[in-house]
Amino acid sequence: MTYWARSIRKGGRGGDGAELPSSCCAKLALDSDECAVTSPDRHSVGCIDALSASSRKNAGTLGAIACLLGAGQILLVVAACCLMKRVNKPKACPPFY
Questions:
Q1: Consecutive sets of 10 residues in the chain, 97 residues long: mean pLDDT of each?
Q2: Sign of torsion, CA 7 12 18 22?
Q3: Are 20 and 37 in contact, with CB atoms under 8 Å apart?
Q4: Contacts for 19 with CB less than 8 Å, ≥ 6 apart
C-alpha cells in the first residue's frame, strides 16, 4: 500500500479523501489529472518501496559505477601531480612593481 493511500484512509489529505496525486496512477487521460484510491491503474507499490527494491536489485551495478568513479578521480589526482612535477620553476622571479 502506498503512503498516499495510508494517508487518505486516515483522512490526511482533506476533501473527500479519494483524490491522489497524478504520479500514483500509471495511465491517465490527457485531459484528466485525477487519480483516485479506487483507480484500477493505481500503482500498488509506493515510491520508497519501489526505489529500495530497485536499489537492492541493481546493487552490483551501482557499486561498480561508484568504484569506477572513485578510480577515475584517483587517476585524475595522480595525473595532476605528474603534471605539477613537470612544470619548471623559474630560476629567478622578477619583481612586479
A1: 54 55 72 70 78 92 97 98 88 74
A2: negative
A3: yes
A4: 8, 13, 34, 35, 36
Comparing CA positions, the residue from 38, 4, 1 lying closest to residue 21 is 4
Give yes or no for a contact between 5 and 20, defined as CB atoms under 8 angstroms apart: yes
Q: What does the block give as the cell for 78? A: 595522480
- Output the pTM of the full model: 0.51
Q: Give the helix ranges, DSSP H, for the chain.
A: 3-9, 47-57, 59-86
Question: Burial of 46 by CB count in 10 Å (0-12 exposed, 13-18 middle, 19+ buried)?
Answer: middle
CA distance 50 to 9: 21
Domain layout of the chain by residue ranges:
3-85
Cα-Cα end-to-end distance for the chain: 74
Q: For residues 42 and 20, is the Cβ–Cβ distance under 8 A?
A: yes
